[in-house]
Amino acid sequence: MKPEYHITPEYGFLNDPNGLAQFNGKYHVFYQWLPEVTPQGNKRWRHCESDDLIQWKDKGCGLQPEEWFEKNGCYSGSGVIDNGQYYLFYTGNVRDKTGGRETYQCAAVSADGNNFTKIGPVAYLTEAYTSHFRDPKVWHKNGRWWMIVGAQTKKLKGNVALYVSDNLKEWKWLGNLLDESMDWGYMCECPDIIESEKRDFLVVSRQKEDGCRAMAFAGKMDYKIGRFKIEDCSGKYLDEGMDFYAPQSFVDEKGRCLLFGWLGSGEFDYQMSQPAVKEGWLHSLTIPREIFVKDGELCQRPAEELKVLRKQRQKFFSCGNTMIDPESSCIEVYAKGLTGKSISIDIGGVLKIDYSKDSKALRVQRKKWDVDEYDERMLVVKNLVDIHIFLDNCTAEIFVNEGKTVLTMKAYFDVDTKILVYSDKQIEVQTWLLEVK
């Protein structure tokens, strides 16, 4: 049941990716972790290291809540490299006996990427915000360091706080990053800014009464006035699936913008109903994804390194019904040449993808694990070109039209998962068994 090529805890509970960086040639990924299978508790950072984004070595706990400024949890944050040192920025969570909360934006530093010395609080809560103030993202631009922090204003509205520093240790608050007239829900978590040549993208995990989703907004970061200027107020979901939240990006030594997200999320009962809980673990991170801009849109594609996993390729030119038996539920499926065609893909009765060339409707269904029903997403796709699917025993990540649309979800497959493909005209389908050496 446990994924084979996703970052997944040996035991316990995983959520947000943290502290992402490439340092001295090695990729470092931390994630929020609890040794018990429960979403609630004193979170700490679990550390993974890799040479190739494929083979991950568990390095144990990187940050644990041991000091007064973090005694009830080392909450999410980011990582940067400066002068041969690896800095982590995170939120220290403190609770009092009455349930009140204090929050501190803290730092830790390492010369080897493994042993971190805590610096302590470096940026403080101002009177403009409630104590729902967390998830610092730090980056370097125009000769200075910048920090954004997810925030809730005193009006109980979501926003993002902006800070600036010249030395990573002393930070000045510059105010709200976002236009207060826009609807940012009641909290903006895990803020991020992804830069491209012509336009930038603000990513926030926006919390609203009708749900919590990771959003991307096109615009431009204006460093002179310290504001992000939104082009499209509606934004777009960074991922259209049922189980994606708290993404974080970083730029590697090749200059690629890479992203990991939490392949989880949901209300308490939804999370704890999953079959993995009985095995003593819960949730994974997504595969590493490269972020790029095409036709002005923020897109995602699987990192090139994932091709190393491919074994036993099967290739079909399908018209009508075609049955494929990969003899595994750890597979990659790629269907192309789909323009002007209706298609359906049924993977073991657990994951169903249907597209109608007439209605332009793409329907994705995921079988529930606790009842004999399906959750589904319905999207309008004017011209379907390709569908690229990664399955890993209990996860599904679907990239549509070269990553313009992505859907991520939990999907618990049987060991022997057969694939039924239908198309009204000939299409090309390839499958690979995926295997970590």
Describe this structure in words.
- By secondary structure, the protein is mainly β.
- It has one helix at residues 268-272; strands at 12-23, 26-34, 44-50, 57-63, 74-82, 85-95, 101-110, 117-124, 129-141, 144-153, 158-165, 172-176, 187-195, 200-208, 211-222, 227-230, 236-237, 245-251, 257-263, 281-282, 284-285, 289-294, 297-302, 310-324, 331-336, 343-347, 351-355, 361-367, 374-380, 386-391, 395-400, 405-410, 419-434.
- The protein contains one helix and 33 strands.
- The strands form six sheets. Strands 24, 25, 26, 27, 28, 29, 30, 31, 32 and 33 form a ten-stranded antiparallel sheet that branches. Strands 4-3-2-1-20 form a five-stranded mixed sheet, with no helix packed on it. Strands 13, 14, 15, 16 and 17 form a five-stranded antiparallel sheet that branches.
- The radius of gyration is 22 Å and the shape is globular.
- The two termini are 18 Å apart.
- It is an enzyme of class 3 (hydrolase).
- Belongs to the glycosyl hydrolase 32 family.
Radius of gyration: 22 Å
* Portion of residues within helices: under 10%
Shape: globular
Query: Largest sheet at a glance?
Result: 10 strands, antiparallel
As a percent range, the share of strand residues is over 45%
Overall number of strands: 33
Category from helices, strands and their pairing: mainly beta
**In terms of per-residue confidence, which ranges show pLDDT below 50 for 5 or more consecutive residues?**
none
Number of helices: 1
Task: Identify the quaternary structure here.
Answer: single chain
Mean pLDDT: 96
